[in-house]
Amino acid sequence: MKILEKRIYDKPEKEDGFRILADRLWPRGMKKENAHIDLWAKEIAPSTELRKSYHGKEIDFKEFSKKYLKELDENPKTESFLNQIKKQETITLMTSVKEIETSETPVLKAFIEQRIKRHS
Fold it and tell me: What number is the average pLDDT over the span 24-53?
């Protein structure tokens, strides 16, 4: 499985494959019909508390990543999410955050890669 990351505001491309919005909140200014998403994975996005403590600069990216991985491990919705995507050749994890490299998408990407490998 190939996993890409991009902003929801970037133009959709055929190479994106199965497009997943990884944010808990709907992106500002984005109409649902213009998002071209296949799945809005809000139930496995970082919790509101975790998101607020990270954006409020109470924790750094390393701590955010650690806590988000713990949330993913403990989330009862994670398995059904993985089952929904495991047959896809390419998925694109999307976020509204400007700095993708310090958003939830690289953490989720690493988690998916680890879990899909473990089950294959």
Answer: 95
